[in-house]
Amino acid sequence: MLLDLGALKRDLGEAAVLDPEGLFARLDGDLGKLVLRRVYADARDRDLDRAALHGGGAEVVDVPANMEERGCSAAVRIVVDALELCYTKRGVNTMVLAASSVQMLPLVAKLQQNGVTVIGLGGAGANAQVRGQCDRFIDLGC
Question: In the chain, how many domains are there?
Fold first, then answer.
């Protein structure tokens, strides 16, 4: 699972409270055991509960706080990490991406071309094209 925490919070709305441990437990129940949990977030964010993320087995990848830089940085890192997993770990046949902007469409298509099932995560703010392109989309706002 590759999760852009900032984008996911925006998709769910500012009022939404994101419980990483609950999310990981829900996804483990729905999808089976998640092998890799990588969260892209600003490490200086006061609302970032690093203990909960680490307790849930997630690796936190620091991305800049500046919205313009953060968006690009998180997206680029997710693309690089997803393709690296796709090409170096041949046993990976499913990826969960919590990055629901149109920036992710080429990545979703490339993963699918390589036989990887793509499960998208997001909320009401998730792009409709991304929802449609993913093999499955889990709306966390429900």
Answer: 1
User: What residue has token string 């041949």?
Assistant: 90
* pLDDT (tens place) for every residue of the chain, 142 residues total: 898 887 787 777 765 667 777 888 888 888 888 888 898 888 777 777 777 788 888 888 888 766 555 457 888 899 999 999 999 988 889 999 986 778 889 999 999 999 999 999 988 778 889 899 999 998 887 6
Residues 6+ apart with CB under 8 A from 58: 3, 20, 24, 37, 38, 39
Determine the structural domain holding residue 102 and report its residue range: 2-139
Residue 108 carries which side chain, given as an amino acid letter?
V
